[in-house]
């Protein structure tokens, strides 16, 4: 991962532990998470830090008030969220257990967003922020 792919508040795995990013130094390729600095540049002396995306899973969606809307015979599931307080339509499609498509529709400040690159929690966070949705993701 590169620092310019991340935003403050993103959830990532740092050395195997889920952490939320507190600060980003794009010039030096570092992030702060859990009050510690971690390097994202592999050729630096302390490059043993491993920062990876957290895979978006059905379990994470369930913790964040998404519900399965349609099950296509075990192959294709469409999840909708964020529950009854949600004014817009947020859909995440899974094929064979892998997230393949995200669609955020209209009611959120008139925004419409669609993506086929939604395999991680931080990518979902970015899409929600782009559409003006202030939702803290629970892991």
Shape: elongated
Largest sheet: 5 strands, antiparallel
Overall number of domains = 2
In angstroms, what is the radius of gyration? 16 Å
In a few lines, what is going on in this structure?
This protein is mainly beta. It has 2 helices and 10 strands; from the N terminus they run E-E-E-E-E-H-E-E-E-E-E-H. The longest helix has 10 residues.
Describe this structure in words.
This protein has helices at 58-63, 121-130; strands spanning 11-14, 17-25, 30-33, 36-39, 51-53, 67-72, 76-81, 89-95, 98-105, 113-115. It folds into two domains: 3-53; 58-130. The model has no long low-confidence stretch (mean pLDDT 82). It starts with 10 loop residues before the first strand and ends in a 9-residue tail after the last helix. It is mostly beta strands and 139 residues long. The chain has two helices and ten strands. The strands form two sheets. Strands 4-3-2-1-5 form a five-stranded antiparallel beta sheet. A five-stranded antiparallel beta sheet has the order 6-7-8-9-10, covered by helices on one side.
Fill in the keyword field for this structure.
139 residues; mainly beta; five-stranded antiparallel beta sheet; 12% helix; elongated
Helices and strands, with pairings:
Layout: E1 11-14, E2 17-25, E3 30-33, E4 36-39, E5 51-53, H1 58-63, E6 67-72, E7 76-81, E8 89-95, E9 98-105, E10 113-115, H2 121-130
Antiparallel strand pairs: 1-2, 1-5, 2-3, 3-4, 6-7, 7-8, 8-9, 9-10
